[in-house]
C-alpha cells in the first residue's frame, strides 16, 4: 500500500519489489505519489507484466470521458501502458447496498472490492456476499492503524507463536482468505510484514481474533454513504 497517511518512501517501495517479492502496488491519484512510483518501478527492474498495479479515481473523475482520461493520466504518471484495474474493474469501500445498487446500473460485476479489514472490523456478511459473487475481497488497514498491536489478545498470541503483533494480524487476515494490503515506509517493517508464511495460526486462535470484531472503523465509515 502507498496511501498518503504516513508519507511515501522511494527506498521502501524499491526494497519491497526487489527483496520481498511484492508484486501488488496499491495507490491512488489522491495519494499524490503516482509519478514517484514510476521511478521506483523502473529502478526495481521488475517487469510490468509481473506487477499488479491498482490505482483509484476520485469523485471529480466520474463519467465516461472523465474516467477514461483519468486512467490514461494515471498510466502516464506511473509510466505504464496499462493498469490492472482497467483490465479488471474494481471498487473500494462498497457495502452490500452499494454493490446491489451498482448491479442495477452496471452490467459488469466488479472484480475486487477493497474495504477496511482488521480484528476490530471484520465485515463477514460483506465478505460472504463478495465471495458468492466471485468478487475478490481486499482488506486495507490490517493493523487497524496500529491500534490492534497493543491489544492483549494479539500480544499474547505473538508471544505464543514467537512472532510480532503485526505478523499475527496479517497472518490472521490471510487465513481468513483476505487479500491483505499492509502499508509501511520503513524497510524493516516491510520485511516483517512479508515474513508471515512460515507459520499457521491454529483454528482456535483464528476464532479468538474473529471474536474481537466490534464494528470499529479506524478509516472512515462507508455506511454514511447512502
Automatic annotation (TrEMBL):
Family membership noted in the UniProt record: Belongs to the aldo/keto reductase family.
SUPFAM superfamilies in alphabetical order: NAD(P)-linked oxidoreductase
Protein name in UniProt: NADP-dependent oxidoreductase domain-containing protein
Listed GO MF terms: oxidoreductase activity
Active site, renumbered: 31
Top-level division of the source organism's lineage: Eukaryota
NADP-dependent oxidoreductase domain mapped to chain residues: 10-84, 156-211
Chain positions of site Lowers pKa of active site Tyr: 56
Pfam families the record matches: Aldo_ket_red
CDD domains attached to this UniProt entry: AKR_CeZK1290-like
Amino acid at each position: 500500500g502507498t496511501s498518503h497517511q504516513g508519507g511515501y518512501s522511494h527506498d521502501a517501495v524499491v526494497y519491497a519489489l526487489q527483496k520481498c517479492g511484492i508484486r501488488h502496488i496499491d495507490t491512488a491519484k489522491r495519494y499524490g505519489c503516482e509519478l514517484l512510483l514510476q521511478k521506483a518501478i523502473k529502478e526495481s527492474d521488475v517487469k510490468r507484466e509481473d506487477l499488479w498495479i491498482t490505482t483509484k479515481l476520485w469523485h471529480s473523475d466520474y463519467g465516461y470521458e472523465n474516467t477514461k482520461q483519468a486512467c490514461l493520466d494515471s498510466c502516464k504518471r506511473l509510466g505504464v501502458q496499462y493498469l490492472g484495474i482497467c483490465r479488471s474493474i474494481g471498487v473500494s469501500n462498497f457495502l452490500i447496498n452499494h454493490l446491489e445498487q451498482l448491479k442495477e446500473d452496471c452490467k459488469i460485476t466488479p472484480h475486487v472490492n477493497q474495504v477496511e479489514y482488521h480484528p476490530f472490523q471484520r465485515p463477514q456478511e460483506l465478505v460472504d456476499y463478495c465471495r458468492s459473487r466471485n468478487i475478490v475481497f481486499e482488506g486495507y488497514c490490517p493493523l487497524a492503524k496500529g491500534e490492534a498491536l497493543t491489544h492483549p489478545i494479539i500480544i499474547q498470541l505473538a508471544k505464543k507463536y514467537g512472532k510480532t503483533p503485526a505478523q499475527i494480524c496479517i497472518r490472521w487476515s490471510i487465513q481468513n482468505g483476505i487479500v491483505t494490503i499492509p502499508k509501511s515506509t520503513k524497510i524493516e517493517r516491510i520485511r516483517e510484514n512479508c515474513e508471515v508464511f512460515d507459520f499457521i495460526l491454529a483454528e482456535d486462535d483464528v476464532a479468538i481474533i474473529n471474536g474481537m470484531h466490534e464494528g470499529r472503523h479506524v478509516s472512515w465509515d462507508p455506511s454514511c454513504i447512502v
